[in-house]
Description:
- By secondary structure, this protein is mainly α.
- The chain has one domain.
- Helices cover 85% and strands 0% of the residues.
- The protein starts with a helix and ends with a helix.
Amino acid sequence: MQILPLILFGIATAFSPGPNNIMTSYTAFNFGFRKAIPTMLGVIIGWTLLIILLQLTSAAVF
């Protein structure tokens, strides 16, 4: 299993201005930082679960 490409992909997408980052900054700008914390946690937890599930299912398939 090659973990380096997965790590590099995760780093690149975590700091890119994707839809989640734009939505979180919009929420923080309009409603304040404290109201944006659940959005930030949702993005972080959702992305982590997505990567874990993709890794587990691809390992099961191959």
